Amino acid sequence: MPLMDAAVELADVCVDMEGQDRPAELSLTVNTGEFLALVGPSRSGKSMVLKLCAGLIAPTGGTVRVLGQDLSELDEEELEALRLRVGIVLAQPGLLSNMTAFNNVALPLRYHRGLDDDEIQPLVMAQLEALGLAPVKDRFPAQLTQGEARCAAVARALVLNQELLLLDDPTAGLDADMTHQLGRLLADHRRTRALTVMVTSHSFTPLLETMDRVAFVRHGRIEAIGRYRDLVAMPGAGMQGYLKPTLSAE
Predict the structure, then answer these.
(1) For residue 69, what are the β-bridge partners?
(2) Contacts of residue 198, Cβ cutoff 8 Å, sequence gap at least 6
(3) What pTM value is reported for the model?
(4) Does the pLDDT at position 3 exceed 60?
(5) Burial class for 128, CB neighbours closer than 10 Å (0-12, 13-18, 19+)
(6) At what angle do helices 176-192 and 146-158 cross, to 10 degrees?
(7) pLDDT score of 203
(8) Can you say whether the dihedral through the CA atoms of 152, 153, 154, 158 is positive or negative?
(9) Is 154 exposed, middle or buried (0-12, 13-18, 19+ CB in 10 A)?
Protein backbone atom coordinates (compact mmCIF):
# COMPACT_ATOMS: atom_id res chain seq x y z
CA MET A 1 0.00 0.00 0.00
CA PRO A 2 1.54 3.39 -0.96
CA LEU A 3 2.18 5.84 1.85
CA MET A 4 0.25 9.08 2.04
CA ASP A 5 2.41 12.04 1.09
CA ALA A 6 1.64 14.07 4.21
CA ALA A 7 1.21 12.92 7.79
CA VAL A 8 0.30 16.44 8.99
CA GLU A 9 -1.17 19.39 7.11
CA LEU A 10 -1.93 22.73 8.74
CA ALA A 11 -3.57 24.97 6.16
CA ASP A 12 -4.10 28.64 7.09
CA VAL A 13 -4.67 27.66 10.71
CA CYS A 14 -5.55 30.43 13.18
CA VAL A 15 -5.40 29.94 16.96
CA ASP A 16 -5.82 32.49 19.74
CA MET A 17 -2.67 32.70 21.86
CA GLU A 18 -2.68 33.72 25.50
CA GLY A 19 -0.78 36.96 26.06
CA GLN A 20 -0.54 37.73 22.33
CA ASP A 21 -2.31 40.62 20.60
CA ARG A 22 -2.90 38.62 17.44
CA PRO A 23 -3.69 34.95 16.82
CA ALA A 24 -1.17 32.42 15.61
CA GLU A 25 -1.26 31.90 11.85
CA LEU A 26 0.25 28.65 10.67
CA SER A 27 0.65 26.66 7.49
CA LEU A 28 2.82 23.55 7.62
CA THR A 29 3.10 20.22 5.84
CA VAL A 30 5.00 17.33 7.43
CA ASN A 31 5.67 14.41 5.12
CA THR A 32 5.08 10.82 6.15
CA GLY A 33 8.24 9.44 7.76
CA GLU A 34 9.75 12.89 8.28
CA PHE A 35 11.63 13.99 11.41
CA LEU A 36 10.81 17.67 12.05
CA ALA A 37 11.77 20.03 14.87
CA LEU A 38 9.88 23.15 15.91
CA VAL A 39 12.40 25.49 17.51
CA GLY A 40 11.97 28.91 19.07
CA PRO A 41 11.38 30.96 22.22
CA SER A 42 9.05 29.98 25.03
CA ARG A 43 5.38 30.78 24.34
CA SER A 44 6.06 31.03 20.63
CA GLY A 45 3.43 28.45 19.67
CA LYS A 46 5.58 25.31 19.34
CA SER A 47 3.64 23.23 21.88
CA MET A 48 0.39 24.57 20.45
CA VAL A 49 1.25 22.96 17.09
CA LEU A 50 1.62 19.57 18.78
CA LYS A 51 -1.72 20.00 20.58
CA LEU A 52 -3.40 20.91 17.29
CA CYS A 53 -2.02 17.76 15.70
CA ALA A 54 -3.23 15.63 18.61
CA GLY A 55 -6.70 17.15 18.48
CA LEU A 56 -6.31 18.53 22.00
CA ILE A 57 -7.17 22.05 20.87
CA ALA A 58 -9.19 23.24 17.89
CA PRO A 59 -8.27 26.16 15.62
CA THR A 60 -10.52 29.16 15.17
CA GLY A 61 -9.91 28.97 11.44
CA GLY A 62 -8.20 26.87 8.80
CA THR A 63 -7.79 23.13 8.45
CA VAL A 64 -5.86 20.54 10.44
CA ARG A 65 -5.38 17.21 8.69
CA VAL A 66 -3.62 14.37 10.53
CA LEU A 67 -2.86 11.01 8.93
CA GLY A 68 -5.16 11.92 6.07
CA GLN A 69 -8.13 12.99 8.19
CA ASP A 70 -9.61 16.46 8.67
CA LEU A 71 -9.97 16.73 12.45
CA SER A 72 -12.97 19.07 12.18
CA GLU A 73 -14.95 16.33 10.40
CA LEU A 74 -14.40 13.63 13.04
CA ASP A 75 -16.86 12.75 15.77
CA GLU A 76 -15.57 11.85 19.23
CA GLU A 77 -15.34 8.14 18.49
CA GLU A 78 -13.43 8.75 15.26
CA LEU A 79 -11.12 11.21 17.01
CA GLU A 80 -10.35 8.66 19.73
CA ALA A 81 -9.54 6.08 17.06
CA LEU A 82 -7.16 8.51 15.38
CA ARG A 83 -5.46 9.33 18.68
CA LEU A 84 -4.50 5.66 19.03
CA ARG A 85 -2.33 6.19 15.96
CA VAL A 86 -0.66 9.24 17.52
CA GLY A 87 1.76 9.16 20.45
CA ILE A 88 2.24 12.38 22.39
CA VAL A 89 4.41 13.46 25.32
CA LEU A 90 3.77 16.99 26.54
CA ALA A 91 5.87 19.10 28.94
CA GLN A 92 4.69 16.96 31.86
CA PRO A 93 5.29 13.26 31.12
CA GLY A 94 1.90 12.31 32.59
CA LEU A 95 2.95 9.00 34.11
CA LEU A 96 0.44 7.49 36.54
CA SER A 97 1.89 7.88 40.01
CA ASN A 98 0.57 4.56 41.35
CA MET A 99 2.14 2.48 38.57
CA THR A 100 5.75 1.44 38.05
CA ALA A 101 7.63 2.53 34.95
CA PHE A 102 7.00 -0.91 33.44
CA ASN A 103 3.26 -0.79 34.08
CA ASN A 104 2.99 2.77 32.77
CA VAL A 105 4.50 1.65 29.46
CA ALA A 106 2.39 -1.54 29.44
CA LEU A 107 -0.89 0.28 30.07
CA PRO A 108 -1.79 1.01 26.41
CA LEU A 109 -1.15 -2.63 25.49
CA ARG A 110 -3.41 -3.85 28.28
CA TYR A 111 -6.15 -1.29 27.72
CA HIS A 112 -6.23 -1.04 23.92
CA ARG A 113 -4.85 -4.41 22.77
CA GLY A 114 -5.98 -6.73 25.56
CA LEU A 115 -2.67 -8.60 25.54
CA ASP A 116 -1.72 -10.97 28.33
CA ASP A 117 1.39 -10.57 30.47
CA ASP A 118 3.49 -13.01 28.44
CA GLU A 119 2.85 -10.98 25.29
CA ILE A 120 3.34 -7.62 27.00
CA GLN A 121 6.65 -8.41 28.71
CA PRO A 122 8.93 -8.49 25.62
CA LEU A 123 7.23 -5.51 23.96
CA VAL A 124 7.65 -3.27 27.00
CA MET A 125 11.16 -4.43 27.86
CA ALA A 126 12.35 -3.78 24.31
CA GLN A 127 11.38 -0.12 24.68
CA LEU A 128 12.79 0.21 28.21
CA GLU A 129 16.08 -1.48 27.35
CA ALA A 130 16.55 0.74 24.29
CA LEU A 131 16.27 3.79 26.54
CA GLY A 132 18.43 2.43 29.35
CA LEU A 133 15.44 2.14 31.68
CA ALA A 134 15.49 -1.60 32.39
CA PRO A 135 17.21 -1.08 35.79
CA VAL A 136 14.41 1.27 36.95
CA LYS A 137 11.44 -0.64 35.50
CA ASP A 138 10.02 -1.38 38.96
CA ARG A 139 10.32 2.19 40.26
CA PHE A 140 7.37 4.54 40.59
CA PRO A 141 7.38 7.97 38.89
CA ALA A 142 8.32 9.76 42.12
CA GLN A 143 11.47 7.61 42.24
CA LEU A 144 12.56 8.47 38.70
CA THR A 145 14.72 11.35 37.58
CA GLN A 146 13.19 13.91 35.25
CA GLY A 147 15.00 12.35 32.31
CA GLU A 148 13.95 8.81 33.25
CA ALA A 149 10.31 9.87 33.57
CA ARG A 150 10.41 11.61 30.20
CA CYS A 151 11.98 8.58 28.51
CA ALA A 152 9.39 6.28 30.10
CA ALA A 153 6.66 8.50 28.67
CA VAL A 154 8.29 8.27 25.22
CA ALA A 155 8.38 4.48 25.54
CA ARG A 156 4.67 4.49 26.39
CA ALA A 157 3.95 6.75 23.40
CA LEU A 158 5.68 4.29 21.06
CA VAL A 159 4.53 0.94 22.44
CA LEU A 160 1.48 0.70 20.15
CA ASN A 161 3.67 1.38 17.10
CA GLN A 162 1.97 4.74 16.59
CA GLU A 163 2.34 6.36 13.17
CA LEU A 164 2.87 9.92 14.41
CA LEU A 165 4.96 10.82 17.46
CA LEU A 166 4.67 14.30 19.03
CA LEU A 167 7.31 15.15 21.64
CA ASP A 168 7.36 18.42 23.55
CA ASP A 169 10.96 19.29 24.49
CA PRO A 170 11.95 15.60 24.67
CA THR A 171 15.55 16.16 25.81
CA ALA A 172 14.63 18.29 28.85
CA GLY A 173 16.29 16.67 31.87
CA LEU A 174 18.17 14.11 29.76
CA ASP A 175 21.92 13.70 30.07
CA ALA A 176 24.11 13.12 27.01
CA ASP A 177 23.81 9.33 27.20
CA MET A 178 20.01 9.42 27.45
CA THR A 179 19.78 11.91 24.59
CA HIS A 180 21.89 9.56 22.46
CA GLN A 181 19.72 6.57 23.40
CA LEU A 182 16.54 8.50 22.56
CA GLY A 183 17.92 9.53 19.20
CA ARG A 184 18.95 5.96 18.44
CA LEU A 185 15.53 4.58 19.44
CA LEU A 186 13.73 7.05 17.18
CA ALA A 187 16.11 6.26 14.32
CA ASP A 188 15.52 2.52 14.78
CA HIS A 189 11.73 2.99 14.64
CA ARG A 190 12.01 5.17 11.56
CA ARG A 191 14.20 2.62 9.79
CA THR A 192 11.72 -0.19 10.29
CA ARG A 193 8.42 1.60 9.66
CA ALA A 194 6.92 4.88 8.44
CA LEU A 195 7.09 6.78 11.73
CA THR A 196 6.66 10.56 11.51
CA VAL A 197 8.21 12.50 14.40
CA MET A 198 7.62 16.12 15.43
CA VAL A 199 9.54 17.55 18.38
CA THR A 200 9.83 20.97 19.98
CA SER A 201 12.88 22.61 21.53
CA HIS A 202 13.63 26.03 23.01
CA SER A 203 17.40 25.51 22.92
CA PHE A 204 20.03 23.50 21.10
CA THR A 205 19.91 19.71 21.33
CA PRO A 206 22.07 17.27 19.36
CA LEU A 207 18.84 15.81 17.95
CA LEU A 208 18.52 18.92 15.77
CA GLU A 209 21.47 17.79 13.69
CA THR A 210 19.62 14.56 12.82
CA MET A 211 16.38 16.26 11.69
CA ASP A 212 15.13 16.20 8.12
CA ARG A 213 13.91 19.78 8.61
CA VAL A 214 13.80 22.44 11.32
CA ALA A 215 11.10 25.13 11.60
CA PHE A 216 11.83 28.32 13.55
CA VAL A 217 8.66 29.49 15.31
CA ARG A 218 8.14 32.92 16.85
CA HIS A 219 4.98 34.85 17.80
CA GLY A 220 2.78 32.05 16.48
CA ARG A 221 4.34 32.05 13.03
CA ILE A 222 6.84 29.88 11.21
CA GLU A 223 9.51 32.39 10.24
CA ALA A 224 11.87 29.94 8.54
CA ILE A 225 11.93 26.25 7.68
CA GLY A 226 14.56 24.08 6.05
CA ARG A 227 17.51 21.81 6.67
CA TYR A 228 19.36 22.36 9.93
CA ARG A 229 22.61 23.36 8.25
CA ASP A 230 20.82 25.87 6.05
CA LEU A 231 19.04 27.57 8.96
CA VAL A 232 22.30 27.71 10.96
CA ALA A 233 23.92 29.52 8.04
CA MET A 234 21.15 32.12 7.70
CA PRO A 235 22.42 35.53 8.88
CA GLY A 236 20.48 38.00 11.00
CA ALA A 237 17.40 35.84 11.49
CA GLY A 238 17.55 35.75 15.31
CA MET A 239 17.66 31.98 15.29
CA GLN A 240 21.25 31.16 16.09
CA GLY A 241 20.81 31.09 19.88
CA TYR A 242 18.25 28.31 19.45
CA LEU A 243 20.18 26.29 16.87
CA LYS A 244 23.75 26.30 18.15
CA PRO A 245 25.20 24.91 21.38
CA THR A 246 26.02 27.49 24.04
CA LEU A 247 29.69 27.50 24.95
CA SER A 248 30.27 27.98 28.67
CA ALA A 249 33.28 29.90 29.81
CA GLU A 250 36.18 27.86 31.14
Answers:
(1) 66
(2) 8, 30, 36, 37, 38, 49, 50, 53, 164, 165, 166, 167
(3) 0.92
(4) no
(5) buried
(6) 10
(7) 86
(8) positive
(9) buried
